Structures are given as C-alpha cells and as structure tokens.
Amino acid sequence: MSERSESKRPPGQNPEPRHLPDRVNAVIVGAGFAGLAAAMALRAQGIDDFLVIERGPSVGGTWRDNTYPGVACDIPSHLYGFANHPNPQWSGLFARGDEIRAYLERVAGLERIAPLLNTTMLDARWDDGVWRVRCSGAHAGEIAASTLLLACGRLTEPKIPDVPGLESFPGPIFHSARWDHTTDLRGARVAVIGTGATAVQLVPELAKVAEVTLFQRTPAWIVPRDDRAYSPAERASFTADPAVLARLRDELYAEGEARFASRSGDRDAAAAARAVALQHLAEQVPDRALRRALTPDYAFGCKRVLLSDAFYPALSSGAVTLEASALAAVEGSTLVAASGGRHTVDAVVLATGFESTEQPYADLVRGEHDTLAAHWDRGMTSFGSTVVAGFPNLFVLDGPNASLGHNSSVLMIEAQAAYAARTLARHPGVRRVDPAAEDAYTDEIDRAAASTPWISGGCRNWYVDERSGRLTLLWPGTVDAFRATLDTDGGEFLPVTIERGAR
Hints:
Helix content: 25-40%
Distance between the termini: 17 Å
CATH architecture of the largest domain: 3-Layer(bba) Sandwich
Largest sheet: 7 strands, mixed
Number of domains: 2
Structural class: alpha/beta
CATH class of the largest domain: Alpha Beta
Radius of gyration: 23 Å
Low-confidence stretches: 1-17, 489-493, 495-503
Mean pLDDT: 92
Number of strands: 21
Number of helices: 14
C-alpha cells in the first residue's frame, strides 16, 4: 500500500478511516523527525510499499507533545531540520516549538506522507519471516511487514518521580510534556520540580505571571544562548539564494562538531567552556549565596549543557525562590524538600524528564527469542546503533547510542534512515545480526565512553543506564565519525546472514 494514495489529504490529518492492509514491505512506528526521515529515505530508494503509524493526533513527535511556555530548540534552527528541506523562514537563531511542529507538518505534506494517526502499536512479533504488528485506536487490526522501523523517539514517556504523598497533592499537578492549558496559573504559587533543559526555558516565562518555587536537585552548567531574530532582509536572502543558507548550515555544523571536545572531556576545551559558563553565572547572578547554589560541582559536560540568557535573571529577580535540594515528600499542599524546607503551593509542574534509558516500546517488540526489553535488561545495545541481534529486519532509529550532546540529533537520524533504506533496497530477504558483532560494537562504545565526563564526571545523567552504569543514549564521537560508520555501499559492513528466499 503506497503512501502516495493519501497525497491529497491535508498533512497530519486522516479525514476518513483507512483499513489496514494485510501486508506491506515496511511499517514505520512514529511520525516525528525519525518517522518522516525513514519514510523519505525509503522513497529515495524507490520503496513505496510502506505504512507509517502514529499514536498521536498529528505528526510532530516531541514537538507536538511539548507545548509548555517558552518551549524551543537549543540547536540552531538551520541545523535542526532535514538536509533536503531547508527552511529559509525560521524566525530566529533558535526555533520555537510551534515553528518546528509546523515545519514537520509542512514536510509531511510536501513529501505526501500520510500516517495513520491515533493508531497505537499494541505489540510486534517476529513470526515465520515477517513482523506481525497489532494496532489499536483509529485503525485497529494486524498487519504483516517484512521490515519494522521503530521511530518512536527517546523522549516520549514522562518520568514521574517517586515521591511520598505526591498523588495526594490537592491542586493541579502535571508534567511539563503534558501541559494543562486549561489551568490558569496567573498569580498562583507554582512549584517547578527540576532544573534541566525544560526548566531553564519554562521558569523565566512562568515567573512573569506566577510566584515560582524551583526545586533543584543538581545545578546545571549553563552557557549564553545569544539568541536573536533573523531580520526580514536575512530571511529574504535565505529564500533568494539557497547557497547562502547552505553555507550557514555548513558553518553551524562545523561549530557543533567543534563542541564535541568540550562536552566529551578534552581538558583544555572543557576548561575554556567551563570558564564561559562561570563568567555567565557571575555576570547574571550578583548574589554570592545564590551563585554558590547554582554552581555545579561536577565536570563540565557530565550532564547536558544548557543554553539560556533568561534563566539566571529570573532567579535573581525575586520572582523565583530557589530550593536548592530535591523534593522529598508532599503533605497536602506543602512540598517538603530534602533540606527540610517546606513550601506551600497551589500547583506543581514536573519538569522531571523522560524514561530515556528504558524505552517503553521495548516491552512491545518480541524477536526470535525474547522482547527488546529483555534483550536490553542491562542497558540498550545494538550494532551500528541501529540493528539488534535476535531481531531480524528491525531498525531502531534514535535508539542505542544514537543521541548527541554537542550537535543536531537530526543529523544522526538521517544517517540511520539512509542506512536502513539502502539495506532494504540492496539486501532483500531476512537479515540477522551476528550477536558477536553486537557485543564487539558494545565493547567499543564502552571503551570510548569510559574516560568521558558522561561516565566519570561525578554526576547522574539521563545518558547512562543505572542498571549497568553503561552509556546507552549518547554516541561517544562526532557526527562525522557516525556517518563514516554507517556510510558504506549498501550496508555491506553489517555482519548479517541474508536469506534471499525469505518471504
């Protein structure tokens, strides 16, 4: 069933029910950046017989789900997009969340990709040479596919902290990724739990209308964002001359690759970046006690380095109370901090991140021997950060060791999607990964990560699986290096057994 049959429908909408076909070449699960990249890559290889399923009501992934005040990307906008779909009309150096969602909807329309929306993968099992994918929702049923591409994202399921009494809080309480727009927080006493990437964007906006108490378990390294709007003349130039935009993208890419040194533990580069962060803190937070509370005691790069020009001023403004310890308990409307501090509030926003190292979809996918969750019970593993032993004809995009701490994750997704499509086009049949090759690749990742701040920098981060202490989210190298790993002629590097006569 070709996606082209839906080309006249508005992007991101299914105006009438579609029946699941009995069989397709490939099923793509998810319609965010990864799902759209996979669909475009398949098309580029002449593969039209695929289906995209999406549990949400539209394309967009995390940029559909996250609508909190101030949501934006911290990768420059002209690098945070598909290479073959430049957008000369980004409003500024860093795109807002609603702009990115609109961009993805526009790309889906231009590429005639019409996912089955409101359709959830119940489970997928490898059975007699095919993947049998069961779906519920708007398009319920079972479909057989030669290949399964998981494009489910890594930041999809909110992480809810295990805090005694949290469920008893009598007022509004919600995760930042499930923002409740029906709740009016103007004039309210609002607790924000967490000081990660979401909080540094959210708190300055929330402090404009509410009395904010911010619970900080661990301070973050924060560097200047230096955001600015693109002028009408600049946007006109980008539109008129694609070469100008291409040069800008190349410059941004090179800047991102250069950041790898400071994030991964190069002593001189990390010291220089740390000095920038400390100067930024000193310039924006005059109060010494507050500055001490906001100064990290771990290596630069150990946790995600954040960008903000507004967070520190908000904390210095008097509109935000910093509780420099974790939330320990909830007693009715009173939040009790690990320090013993007590804060009575009207509403709670959980900016507590996502279930990143234990992906929710892993329980739903059963290969030749067990589920992905069981295979990954000591942390996610793979070969080439894309394929997994015991799971024939399965590709995982944005999965094990495919994220970045220094550059645009879209670059990694595109490399994985292109590899998967090349492999499907040039190596039909059943493709099985050699378990020894997966073990060797995992050992290589572990060796590369051992000396980095992500492992040895003295902090807890969401890149490391606490069950094994392994780095399972980040790729411990540059984008150039990752591309070189995957960029072979048709994927011949992949140590697989190919059964040409498979169905």
